[in-house]
Predict the 3D structure of the following.
Amino acid sequence: MSREWCTLVPRIEQLARGLGLDFHPVEFEAVPDSFMMEIAVYGLPVRMPHWSFGVRYIYQLIQRHMGHSRLFEVVFPGNPGHAYLSAGNGLAENVLVSAHVFGHADFSRNNLLFRRCQGQVSERIVEHAAQHARQIQHAIDTYGVERVEAVLDAALALEQHIDVDQPLRRAPYPQYLEPAKALADDAFRRRFAALDPASPAADATGPQRAPLPPHPERDLLWFVAQYAPQMESWERDVFLAVREESFYFYPVFATQIMNEGWASYWHARLLREADFIPQQAYLDAIRCHSEVVRPVAADEQVALSVNPYHLGFSLWEHIVAQRGLDAAFAIRVEDDDFAFIRNHLTRDLAEELGLFRYRARDGKVTVLQTDLDALHEAILAPKYNFGAPAVFARRVCADGALELWHDHRLDGRGLDLERSRKVLEYLQRLWRRPVRLVTTDEDGAELELSVT
């Protein structure tokens, strides 16, 4: 990392704050490309060990060797924030990246979803995740790698199945049903109750146990950690550690278009207004910006193939131009990608950005779809339920078997049956009772997968 770049960072930060950005201190560190790939794969600089991360690392390595992937920076929000930059970056790339990082830092400090999840997990997530890694290593030393890996197999297979609408630290369900409200005590009601054995007034058996769960439960990590019949305390701790990290990752996932667009808008604006940047570095940084926010085109354009940097950047530019910077600041506080796309991706803007589905063949462009609501849903569909199928814990049976239910109507997704069966096998090892999953096949008929 060049000494010249290090002298520019404080000036870029001062300019960012002068333009209204509000963020916690950011610690920058230049690291080798191999470490950047590890961060991208694990999601954090230090994280619990598991074989699945090795599979992801190989995928990233292949993508990079094919020229499909290059990491300039990885940012972890918090107080302080941490920004890891590739040691191979040049001056222009680092100028752009530092401005981009300050945009991310402002977004994560002010966005309500980030604030709520960070407030429940930790504002020092790097240190917090390192503590989890030490916890896992202690379990490996105590119980052996095979037992710990079996727990992580199940927990990481369910890492998207959380409920961020519930608090991170939830109380268990009530064990008993609430007693029915007493009715007025008169002769007629007493006689009526005597005729109906099922009525509350005729029930003299005392408190009744509540069903488990009392309603379909989508936070599977929490449910298994809380109610698995023979789970050991260290196994529960592993599940809850994975759940905590999932709460941290959810805002990153749910605001990707907004967040990357906001950071791209601000790095472009800061570059324009930073008259202290050397001219050649400025020109090179602008070229780099053009690469970052370019649209992704193909023979048949589908909304999901758009570059989130390009879409988010374009929406923020439009919002600032039409409604002003104060309105943009308010939107970055309140919205997630669902509200952002539905409220601000208009038909005119979608046409201008070429987002409607079309086919280009023999020099002719044919529009295939112009339904704005369908476009919104096509962009947002992969984001529902943290990108995972909507699977709920529906019932714990008398023999302790766990029944899961996939609501295909809620998410519009089918299940990969081979992968689903593998996940059930992982889960059954921890539940230590039969596990069943009820879903539907492609014809809408009920289908049950079972592992005993």
